[in-house]
Protein 1
Amino acid sequence: MPKRVLIADDEKNMRWVLGESLAGEGYEVIEATDGKEALAAVEEQHPDLMVLDHKMPSPDGMEVLRRIRANGETFPIIMLTAHGNVATAVEAMKAGATEYLTKPFDLAELKLRIDKAIRISELSAEVERLREELDRDWDVEGFIAADSRMLEILSTVEKVAPTNATVMIYGESGTGKELIARAIHRLSPRSGKPFVEVHAGALPETLLESELFGYEKGAFTGAVTAKPGRFEMANGGTLFLDEVGDISLGVQVKLLRVLQERRFERLGGTRSIDVDVRVVAATNRDLQQLIAEGAFREDLFYRLNVVPITLPPLRQRQGDVPLLVAHFLDKYKAGGKTISNDAMQALVNYPWPGNIRELENTIERIVILSANDEVGLDDLPAEVRVGSAPTSMRLRGFELPEDGLDLEEVEMHFIEQALERTNGNAAKAAKLVGLTPKTFEARAQRLGLV
C-alpha cells in the first residue's frame, strides 16, 4: 500500500512540482491550498507524512503544525519556508516539525528526507507495537491466573528474574513454559538484549550442535560460509532451551562445558568464543527418570536445575478456565459473544490434554464458526462435549457408594498401598498409580506419607 503524502502550500506551481515528483516515486499525493484545507485533509485523509509551507493563509503553517500536534497526531511533518531564519527554525522544531527546509531547496534532498522520515516513523511504530506486545504478553502481571499454585510460580518468577540463576521449567505441552521463559527475560536486567529460542526436540543431533554453537567455513559439506550459533546470537541476553530432555548425550557434554566455562568452539573451529548468556531450559519429560535410564547426564541436570519451576496442567487449575476463556474471547475479537452456563461448565470440566494452547485454539474456532451471540453446548467441539460429560463412576468393577466417599482418603489409601508393594521405592510406586515420580512425590508429601 503506497504511503500518503499531504502537500500543503498556497503556491500552485510548488504543489504541482512536488506532486509529480513524489507520485513518480510511488507515493499517493493529496494537496491543500491553505491552512483550513490542510487541517481538513489531515482529519479526513490521515496522511503518513506532510510537507507544510510556513507562510500560508488562514491559518498559517506554524498554527497548522501546532493544532496537528495538539490533536495527538504523530506523523512526520516537513516545514518549508521562503523566509527561513534560525529563530523560525527553532520555533518550528519546538512545535513538532520533523524537518525544516528553506526555499529554494534541492528536490532530491527533499525526497531523501521524506524517505528517511517515513522509515523512522515506521520503525517507531513497530518498536511501540512490540513494546505493547511485550507488556501485554510477557510481563508477569499479564498472566491470566487466579490459581494459588500459579500465583506462587509468578512470585518465584519475579524473584528469580533479576538474578543470573539458570532456571529449569517443567510442564506438559501447552502449559506456558515459553511464556514463563520470556517473562524471566523481560523482567531481568538482560531485557534489552536478545531472547533466543532453540527447540531441541525438533532438530537431529548434528543440526542441533551446529545451531547451538555455529560452524566455520568448510566444517562440513555445504558449509560455504561461517555461521554463528544461538549461543553467540544470545550473547548478553537469554537462551531458551526448549525440550532439553531430547538432547543427545553427545551434545549434552558440550552444553555442560558451556554452562561451566562460558566458552565454546564453533563446529570445525579451534578458536574459543567467550559468551555471557543466561540459560532457561524447559522440558515435558521426567529428567530424573531419564538419568536413571542413562539418557541424561546427572551433572548437566544439576547445572540446569538451579531454580526449578513446575507448571500445573490446566486440568489442575480449573478455576482459571473462565478467566482464560474471557481473555481469548477478547483476543479474537468475539464481538460481544458470551458463553452459556452449560457451555462454560463443559469447558471447565474438560481435561484439556493440550492445556492452554488447546483451549485458545478452541475459543478461536468458536469465534470463527459460531453464529450465535451466546455460545451454547452445541457450539462446542464434539471432543469437549463428550470429554466433559459425567461418567458412570466405575473403576474396574467398583461402583461409587450411595453415601459417597472421601477422595483424599482414597488417594492416600492407594499411595500407601503402592509404597508398601514396592518396599518404599517412590519411582516404582509412581508407575503403579500412573503418575510421574515428581507428581507422586508431591502428592505423597502433601498427604504426609513421605
Protein 2
Amino acid sequence: MRLLFFIHSLSGGGAERVMANLANHWAAKGWHITIVSLTSRSSDFYELHPAVRRISLELAGESRNVLAGLWKNLHRVRALRQVLRQVQPDIALALMSTANVILALATRGLANVCAIGSERVHPPQWPLGAQWGALRRFTYGRLAAVVALTQESAEWLRMHTRAQRVPIIPNMALLPLAVQAPRLIPETVCVADRHILLAVGRLEKQKGIDWLLEAFMALAQKYYNWNLVILGEGPERRALETQVQAFRLDGRVFLPGRAGNVGEWYERADVYVMSSRFEGFPNTLAEAMAHGLPVVSFDCDTGPRGIIRPEVDGLLVPPGNVDALTAALDRLMGDAALRMQFAARAVEARERFSMERIVGMWEELFAELR
C-alpha cells in the first residue's frame, strides 16, 4: 500500500500525534508512507519511523489580504498536486479542514488516487470563515470519504457539506507512549510526596485552562498536599501565568512546558482533568485512562462523553460550569477509595481504543474504497 498523509504541520498536537502514530504503524508493516506538510520540518515534534518519507512544501503562513491568500492557496494546491503525481499513492489522507479542502482540489482529475479527508474537531466549534466554509461545503463532495471522530460530527458533516460517505473512526490510546525530547522529570518539577492533578494540552483558549485555575484556586487551601501540573505550550502562556500569580498559586501550579514523556506523567499523577470548551476526540483523555487514571471532564462537544463512563471510570460535569468542575474535583481529590475504584475500570480504555482496533477500522475503510 502506498499511503500519503497531508497535514498543515507536525508540531505538537492531537491530530499530529494521531497521524504520526498511524504513519509509524503502517511503515513498520511495510507500507510506503509519505507525509507532506505545509510547514517547514523545523517545526516537527513527533518522531517518525525511518522508512517514512517526509516532504515539506514550505508554504505555511498568513496572507496579507484576500488576493494574496487566493494566490497562496492556488500555489499550495499546485505543489501538492505535483507531489501526488510524483509519489502516486493509492490513498491520500488529509487531516483537518483546510488540508481536506486543498487535497480535494489537488486530486481533481487524478483518477488513480483515492482521496480521504478527516475532521479532527467538531466542525461547528471551529468556524472557518465564509470562504473556507464555502469551500469545505462543496469540495467535500469530491472526496471518497470524510472521516469523523464522533457521531455528532458525522451528523453535522452530512447536513452541512456534500460529503458522500462519513465513517466514524475515533482516535487510539497508544501504549506504551514513546519517549522523546524534551523529557520533563516529574520529581524536578514538583515535590515527590505531593499528589498531582494533571492536565495536558496546548495553552490556548479552547482548552479552558483559565477555568481549571479557578476550580483549583477554590480547592488549593483544602488540599494543601496537591499540585496542579499543566503540560503544554501555546499562546495563552503569559495570561495563564498572570492568572496563577493573581490567584497566589505560585508553588502549587506548574506550567513546565511541552513534554516528550507524557506517559511518565500519567503514571505519576493521581487524577486527570480536562476543562476544554470544545474538543474533537481528546487523545490525552483516553491515554490518561489507559494508564489507569481516574478522570474529570467537562461534557463539552465532542468526545469526552464517548470516552468517560460516568461513575464507572470518571466524572462528567456540565460544560463551562466551573462550580460543578470544582465539586467533581473535590469529590475525587478527597476520596482515595473512589480514585482507586475508577482507576480499576479506566484501564479498560486500553482495549476500547487500542491501536489494533482503530487501525483495523482505517484499513477496512481503505479496502472498501479502493
